[in-house]
Amino acid sequence: MPFDLQPVLCQGLVGVRPLRSADFDELYQVARDPLIWAQHPVKDRYRYDVFTRFFAESLASDGALAVTSATGDIIGSSRFHGYDQRRSEVEIGWTFLARSYWGGPANGQLKALMLGHAFRFVERVVFLVGPDNRRSQRALEKVGAVRVGTRPDGAGHDSILFEMRRPAGSTKSG
Questions:
Q1: Do β-strands 89-97 and 124-129 pair in parallel, antiparallel, or remain unpaired?
Q2: Is 130 exposed, middle or buried (0-12, 13-18, 19+ CB in 10 A)?
Q3: Phi, psi angle pair for 127, to nearest 5°
Q4: What are phi and psi of 30, to 5 degrees?
């Protein structure tokens, strides 16, 4: 079975589904908050023109996901990227959530959904985080990711590399 980079998953407070072009307005209402991007390498992603480019890149990635609340409202976005069957690896990234979901269980539930799906196909999930993005680094540590080094991101920026490995006893289906 091939890795589905845009699954529909739901559990607890959050769900994910494929990002669609019709989601732009609702997702931009979340993304237009400058504080979401304050520690991010692209600090002005809250601007309409910058977000428009990001959104187009997300759609073109074929791995972008709308993150939804239990009521179905869009509360953020995330993405599967760089699936490498040979290395048994995929990246989870480009994640952002509305500030009203910070600090609670939403990010942990989101990562659990995405990791559960990924570990059906790969041994290792990686996360690339900007060196100054302390908030995302702490959030990854909170869900059990381990800092293992550095790696340039897709744009060539230095990033901190975190990883999670498939739990012992889990089996691959793909």
A1: parallel
A2: middle
A3: -135, 135
A4: -80, -50
> Over the Cα atoms of the chain, what is R_g?
15
Annotate 68-84 with b (16+ C-beta within 10 A) or e (fewer).
bbeeeebbbbbbbbbbe
Helix (H, G, I), strand (E, B) or coil at 115: helix
Instruction: Give dist(CA 119, CA 152) in Å, integer.
Output: 24
Residues contacting residue 43 through CB under 8 Å, at least 6 positions apart = 34, 37
Exposure string for 115-126, b = 16+ CB within 10 A, e = fewer: bebbbbbbebbb
Cα 18 to Cα 62: distance, rounded to the nearest angstrom: 9
Structural tokens at position 72: 């179905």
For the beta carbon of residue 48, count every other beta carbon within 10 angstroms. Answer: 9
Check: pTM over 0.90? Answer yes or no. yes
* Measured CA angle at 19 (ends 80, 122), to 5 deg: 20
Residue 96: give the domain boundaries.
Answer: 9-125
Residue 16 sits in a domain of what CATH number?
Answer: 3.40.630.30
Query: Would 162 be classed as within a structural domain?
Result: no
Express each pLDDT in 55-92 by its tens digit.
999 999 999 999 999 999 999 999 999 999 999 999 99
Domains of the chain: total:
1
